[in-house]
């Protein structure tokens, strides 16, 4: 079994379909950082069931779907398919090629497929259990897996060893069993709660049921008495109502006549009031108009006073403005004189500043050139001094180099002599090691031939054992399913037998008659003596209706005795069918004139004893059974509704045209019970026969399994012995080979070192000559520089004196210039201030003149307005006098109409007194009518509320022979009251609760048995896990010791179970002793040593139980070059049994690979895979 192919579509950086084919050996997947090479190992983890998106370097499920780029749209789904070659049938599935596929959509939907058939993740886990393949196994080893082994968390490290030792499937089964145990216990707790609750309810319900039955009996007697009492009382009330209604009619006529007269008088009063309203409206308008005239006159008077006041204010303002104008003109004259004086002074200051500025500029220009010359001279001097320091440092460095080179020549000559001696010694050791290696290699080959023969036989036996196990498991499943079905059928059978035994479904009276064995001539209920096919049960039950409860008797005498028994014991009513009286009434089918086909006459669809034929045909002989209601309606119409028609769904078309139908209760009917009892008994018997055959086959298979296991144990012991021998020999071979390689490398290193020493000697001699020449040149340059420094220092001193004198003169002139400039600025500011004040004064003079002119015009306008207001007030006073006269006339007319209304109101009061007397009489009559109607309504309401009867329906129960005795009524009511609260539903509820009580009692017993069985299974699993873990862990530890030496080139490594008493949960301690160091705990090793130790453990696990394929994702990244070389060499050895896919960027791993896939990104965020077969590449290189 090996990994054959990986297909990706839409997964992370692989938007288009990408197929990667894998061969046996080592395949390397390489590429630069960020190219997407690790996405390939993520894809394998994901398709094998990884649920943690964080483990795949994402946050949510849609992060594994291609997210899109600028040029390519995002994908809506991703899909990864992993194909495994199963030609060796190591996977328990009948396919030579197994493809596991996983698909996910952006909306969160996802699914797994096995060979393109939808399946569960659980199915895939179970298929791969104990193969080493899976997200938690050791078929995918990444840096995180190495970190798990190195982790301080015992649980992380423990998971790897559990899978390696093959107990993962047992632990999984144990967890499933514990989960089932927990669920079963929870179910038991829930059932016990319900069971106790039902147990507490059933006794009170029995008492309530008994009371309810007595209550119903008393209630029926009370109903007969009370209904007849209510009917008689209602009759009396109806007679009284008829007489009083006549009196009411006479009184109503008299009241009506009075009402007509009153309405005429009301109309006259209404007309008078309307005239008064019109007058009052006119008076109101006149009042409003008069008030408005008065308001206008008052406003005019106020306006005239205000105008006169404004005229006086304007005259006062004119005088004030004239005074202010004189002040402004005087100030303007004074400011103008001061301005002329300041302007003359500014002109003199400006001329003095201009002369001073020119003098400063001439001197500064002359001094600037001198300053530049002085700076250049100073810079030249500093450069020369720096050169002197540089020359001194160079000369010192060269002298030191000369000393070192001389010493180096002596060391080179000494080392060359030592190297020649070492090479001679190593060559002698190398020949000896090669001879020993050849002898060991021949011995290993002989053992391998024998081991292959043993493995072939063992694989055949294991395959045979697996087949036996599968067959045994299938038989167990069959037995378990049969037991479950038998238990279910038995439970239902018992229920139906109990129903048949206790005559469930029949009325109380029917049950009592059937139960009493002392009554002779009782043949049974009609529903008990007939049977029919299941398909006709609904139709026959509907056709029979209440007849199902009828009891067949031999003759009328037997029926009479049974009726007497029922009456005597007050057990209800039953209809009896005496066989000596009832005759057949079967339809003559020739008289049925209908085109619509029907199934049969109902009596022909039932089976019965021939002695009951007359009764059956009397009841069912005139009923037609038809398939559906549509055809039933056609049939009924065609036969003029002469026959009773029943459909298979139980709908009924009655003679005459009425229809009965709707939903039916789903509870088991009386007809089906016998058939169901027979069916369940037959099924139970068949299951028993089948289980006996299964148990015989199981015993044969168990014996075969035992014999095959003994053979396997024998071969496994032989193979284990041979494998240990091979490991022992291989360890020695590896050690010798490592020593040979080490000797060769040492010779090569020494030869390279010698060649390097020779080249170094020539180079050193040439370097000494060059340094001596450089020292002479530096000394000559140093002397020339010192001479130039002395000459330039003298020139610099002369230039400094002249520059200082001119600089002092410039500073004095600049100070004088600043003082004169400040005086000039002050004069300029004062001129500007005066000009601004003069502008303001001119504006104020103009404003004053304008104000005086405006106020004079305003006075003239105000005088004209005052004249107009006085004329308007005079006209308004005339209009006011006119309107006051109109107001007096309207008031007089209003008073006259009020006198007329008073007269009419006196007449109305007299009529009102007479009407009141009549109404009082009418009220008394209506009160009596209402009281009688209320009493009648009370009786009819009580009929309806107490007995759900209308008065018309109650008349059907009228019985004039009944004597209404209040004492009997009160006695019945007292007995009902003494019963207390009655629960009518308790009759039905008790029956249902009793059935539930029996059901939960059986369920409780079943669950208790299941708990015991599961606890036993868990105990057996723990025993098996301990044995297997101990054996496999010992093997892994031995392998680790070997692999550790192999990868480290020596040293020691060991795995220890810290808690031997609890090996299934104990932490695994890892100790290591690298070559040349003491034994240490894993945490005390360096990073590289830790990583190589973890890799040694993983390889030891693969040796103990080789996985078909293994994906290594940059686990060797922390290793140095020497360790990488040993890692690659050992990987080649392991690849003989295990297929490796290595995601890497280390050269040593690439060199060990047989095939290489390069992952690159030609387009941003889109990975592309390019394959290279190194075997073919080497062939092409050899040809070239």
Structure explained in plain terms:
- The structure is a single chain.
- This protein is α+β, with helices and mostly antiparallel strands and 1184 residues long.
- It has a domain at 2-139 and 1109-1176: P-loop containing nucleotide triphosphate hydrolases (Rossmann fold, 3-Layer(aba) Sandwich), CATH 3.40.50.300.
- Helices cover 70% and strands 10% of the residues.
- The strands form six sheets. A six-stranded antiparallel β-sheet has the order 2-1-4-5-6-7. It has a six-stranded mixed β-sheet with strand order 8-22-23-3-24-25. Strands 13-15-16-17-18 form a five-stranded mixed β-sheet, with helices on both faces.
- Helix 5 (168-501) runs antiparallel to helix 14.
- The two termini are 37 Å apart.
- The model is unreliable at 1179-1184 (pLDDT under 50).
- Required for chromosome condensation and partitioning.
- Residues 167-201, 227-296, 325-401, 430-478, 677-798, 824-921, 990-1024 form a coiled coil.
- It is found in: Cytoplasm.
- InterPro entries: P-loop_NTPase, RecF/RecN/SMC_N, SMC, SMC_hinge, SMC_hinge_sf, SMC_prok.
- Keywords: ATP-binding, Coiled coil, Cytoplasm, DNA-binding, Nucleotide-binding.
């Amino acid at each position: 079994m090996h990994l054959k192919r990986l297909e990706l579509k839409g997964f992370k950086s692989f938007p288009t379909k990408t197929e990667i084919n894998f061969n046996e050996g080592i395949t390397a997947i390489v590429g630069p950082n960020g190219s997407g090479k690790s996405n390939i190992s993520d894809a394998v983890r994901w398709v094998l069931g990884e649920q943690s998106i964080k483990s795949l370097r994402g946050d949510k499920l849609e992060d594994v779907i291609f997210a899109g780029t600028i040029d390519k749209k995002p994908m809506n789904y991703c899909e990864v398919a992993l194909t495994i070659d199963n030609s060796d049938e190591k996977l328990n599935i009948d396919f030579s090629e197994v493809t596991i596929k996983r698909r996910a959509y952006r909306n969160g939907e996802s699914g797994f497929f096995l060979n393109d058939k939808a399946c569960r993740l659980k199915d895939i886990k179970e298929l791969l259990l104990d193969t080493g393949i899976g997200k938690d196994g050791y078929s995918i080893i990444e840096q995180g897996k190495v970190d798990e082994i190195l982790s301080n968390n015992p649980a992380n490290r423990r998971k790897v060893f559990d899978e390696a030792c093959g107990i993962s499937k047992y632990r999984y089964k144990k967890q499933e069993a514990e989960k089932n145990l927990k669920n079963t216990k929870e179910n038991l707790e829930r059932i016990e709660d319900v069971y106790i609750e039902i147990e507490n309810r059933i006794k009170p319900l029995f008492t309530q049921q008994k009371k309810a039955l007595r209550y119903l009996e008393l209630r029926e007697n009370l109903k007969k008495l009370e209904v007849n009492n209510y009917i008689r009382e209602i009759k009396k009330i109806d007679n009284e109502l008829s007489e009083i209604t006549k009196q009411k009619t006479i009184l109503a006529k008299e009241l009506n006549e009075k009402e007509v007269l009153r309405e005429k008088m009301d109309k006259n009063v209404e007309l008078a009031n309307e005239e008064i309203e019109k007058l009052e409206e006119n008076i109101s308008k006149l009042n409003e108009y008069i008030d408005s005239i008065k308001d206008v006159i008052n406003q005019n008077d106020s306006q005239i006073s205000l105008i006169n006041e404004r005229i006086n204010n304007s005259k006062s303002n004119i005088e004030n403005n004239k005074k202010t104008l004189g002040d402004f003109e005087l100030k303007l004259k004074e400011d103008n004189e001061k301005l002329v004086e300041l302007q003359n002074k500014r002109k003199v200051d400006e001329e003095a500043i201009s002369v001073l500025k020119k003098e400063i500029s001439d001197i500064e220009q002359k001094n600037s050139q001198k300053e530049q010359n002085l700076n250049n001279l100073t810079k030249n001097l500093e450069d020369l001094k720096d050169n002197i320091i540089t020359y001194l440092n160079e000369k010192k460095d060269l002298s030191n180099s000369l000393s070192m080179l001389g010493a180096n020549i002596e060391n080179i000559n000494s080392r060359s002599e030592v190297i020649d001696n070492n090479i001679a010694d190593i060559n002698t050791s190398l020949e000896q090691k090669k001879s020993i290696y050849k002898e060991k290699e021949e011995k290993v080959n002989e053992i391998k031939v024998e081991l292959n023969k043993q493995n072939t036989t063992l694989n055949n036996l294991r395959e045979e054992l697996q087949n036996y196990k599968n067959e045994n498991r299938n038989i167990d499943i069959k037995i378990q399913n049969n037991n479950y079905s038998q238990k279910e059928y038995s439970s239902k059978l018992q229920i139906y037998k109990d129903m048949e035994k206790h005559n469930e479904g029949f009325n109380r009276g029917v049950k009592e008659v059937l139960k009493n064995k002392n009554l002779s001539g009782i043949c049974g209920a009609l529903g008990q003596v007939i049977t029919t096919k299941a398909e006709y049960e609904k139709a026959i039950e509907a056709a029979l209706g209440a007849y199902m409860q009828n009891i067949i008797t031999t003759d009328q005498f037997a029926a009479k005795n049974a009726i007497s028994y029922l009456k005597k014991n007050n057990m209800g009513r039953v209809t009896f069918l005496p066989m000596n009286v009832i005759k057949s009434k079967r339809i003559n089918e020739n008289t049925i004139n209908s085109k619509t086909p029907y199934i049969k006459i109902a009596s022909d669809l039932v089976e019965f004893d021939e002695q009951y034929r007359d009764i059956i045909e009397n009841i069912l002989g005139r009923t037609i059974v038809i398939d559906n209601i549509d055809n039933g309606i056609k049939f009924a119409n065609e036969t003029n509704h002469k026959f009773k028609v029943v459909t298979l769904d139980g709908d009924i078309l009655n003679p005459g045209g009425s229809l009965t139908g709707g939903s039916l209760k789903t509870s088991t009917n009386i007809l089906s019970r016998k058939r169901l009892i027979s069916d369940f008994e037959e099924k139970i018997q068949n299951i028993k026969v089948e289980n006996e055959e299964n148990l015989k086959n199981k015993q044969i298979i168990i014996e075969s399994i035992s014999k095959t296991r003994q053979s396997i144990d024998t071969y496994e012991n032989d193979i284990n012995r041979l494998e240990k021998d091979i490991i022992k020999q291989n360890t020695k071979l590896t050690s010798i080979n490592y020593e040979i390689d080490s000797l060769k490398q040492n010779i090569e290193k020494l030869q390279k070192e010698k060649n390097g020493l020779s080249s170094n000697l020539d180079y050193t001699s040439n370097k000494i000559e060059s340094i001596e020449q450089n020292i002479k040149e530096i000394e000559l340059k140093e002397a020339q520089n010192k001479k130039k420094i002395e000459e330039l220092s003298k020139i610099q001193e002369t230039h400094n004196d002249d520059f200082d004198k001119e600089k002092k003169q410039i500073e004095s002139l600049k100070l004088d210039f600043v003082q004169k400039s400040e005086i000039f600025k002050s004069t300029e500011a004062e001129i500007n201030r005066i000009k601004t004040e003069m502008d303001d004064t001119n504006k104020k003079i103009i404003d004053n003149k304008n104000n005086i002119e405006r106020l004079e015009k305003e006075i003239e306008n105000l005088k004209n307005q005052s004249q107009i207001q006085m004329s308007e007030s005079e006209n308004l006073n005339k209009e006011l006098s006119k309107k006051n006269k109109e107001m007096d006339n309207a008031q007089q007319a209003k008073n006259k109409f009020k006198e007329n209304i008073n007269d009419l109101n006196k007449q109305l009061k007299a009529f009102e007194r007479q009407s009141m007397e009549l109404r009082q009489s009418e009220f008394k009559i209506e009160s009596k009518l209402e009281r009688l109607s209320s009493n009648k309504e009370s009786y009819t309401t009580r009929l309806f509320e107490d007995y759900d009867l209308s008065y018309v329906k109650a008349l059907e129960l009228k019985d004039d022979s009944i004597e209404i005795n209040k004492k009997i009524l009160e006695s019945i009511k007292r007995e009902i009251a003494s019963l207390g609260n009655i629960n009518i539903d308790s009759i039905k509820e008790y029956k249902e609760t009793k059935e539930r009580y029996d059901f939960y009692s059986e369920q409780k017993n079943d669950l208790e048995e299941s708990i015991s069985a599961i606890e036993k299974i868990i105990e057996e699993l723990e025993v098996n896990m301990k044995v297997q873990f101990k054996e496999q862990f010992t093997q892994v530890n031995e392998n680790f010791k070997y692999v550790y030496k192999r990868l480290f080139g020596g040293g020691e490594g060991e795995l220890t179970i810290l808690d031997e008493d609890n090996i299934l949960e104990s932490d695994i301690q890892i100790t290591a002793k690298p070559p040349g160091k003491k034994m240490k705990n894993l945490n005390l090793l360096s990073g590289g040593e830790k990583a190589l130790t973890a890799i040694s453990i993983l390889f030891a696990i693969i040796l103990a139980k080789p996985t078909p394929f293994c994906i290594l994702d940059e686990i060797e990244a922390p290793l140095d070059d020497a360790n990488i070389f040993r890692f690659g060499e050992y990987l080649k050895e392991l690849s003989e049994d295990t297929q490796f896919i290595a995601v890497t960027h280390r050269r040593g791993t690439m060199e060990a690979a047989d095939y290489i896939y390069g992952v690159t990104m030609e387009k941003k965020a889109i990975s592309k895979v390019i394959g290279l077969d190194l075997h073919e590449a080497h062939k092409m290189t050899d040809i070239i």
